[in-house]
Amino acid sequence: MTETAAAAQLRKEGWCVLREIIPQPQAQQLRIALYGVFGGCGIMAPACFNNVPPGPICLRTSVIKDCPGLAPYMVEPRLLEVLEAAVGRPLAVTSTTFLVHQPDEPAGPWHKGEPFDSTSAPGAGPAAHVMLYWMFSQFTEENGGLLCRPQGCEGTLTITGNVGDVAILDSRIPRAVAANPSPLMRLSVAAGYATAGVGAPPKDTTSKMPKAVYEGMPAAAKLLFHHWVQ
Asked: CATH fold of 3-228, please?
């Protein structure tokens, strides 16, 4: 799918997937770095990704400060082309959360991306906020993938993809955490993007960043995160 087609689908149906925004070698390196953030989590076993007993979801908010190597891909040109066409300019990142969905984890409730925008629907105008799901595991039918209900489509869609792909969901469409019946964990980083608008750009209350991490980011990424600096 071209960037033009992806942006059109995002505006109309509220979702799209961009393939290999992070090349495989770099995606695997980031996967290892993300795991390092959780070595002492206590919920995840420190030995490896693929042999963990069932348990609750493990997450880390503001993970960009622990894994700043993700920042260059958050301003990847193909990605920005789609986001700017669907959301507008200038953009600001509202959150970055590492999500670990354990084997045998049950499905989560259906919800929208409130409080950003729940009063309209895709096709009724530009999105005020979108959520990106960076895949650091295979997202498959077997492990549940990512569930959503696209605008104008009947039924539930299971979004699938490979390590390095990114799914983009308009915050106005329903989505849910899929059950994971597989024996392997499902790993992703959820990142919110919104238009900066007038005044202070939006962000979650947990979205904070040390100045030293911010200064090490590429110049383009700094534009997304300047309101996070502590």
From this structure: Jelly Rolls (2.60.120)
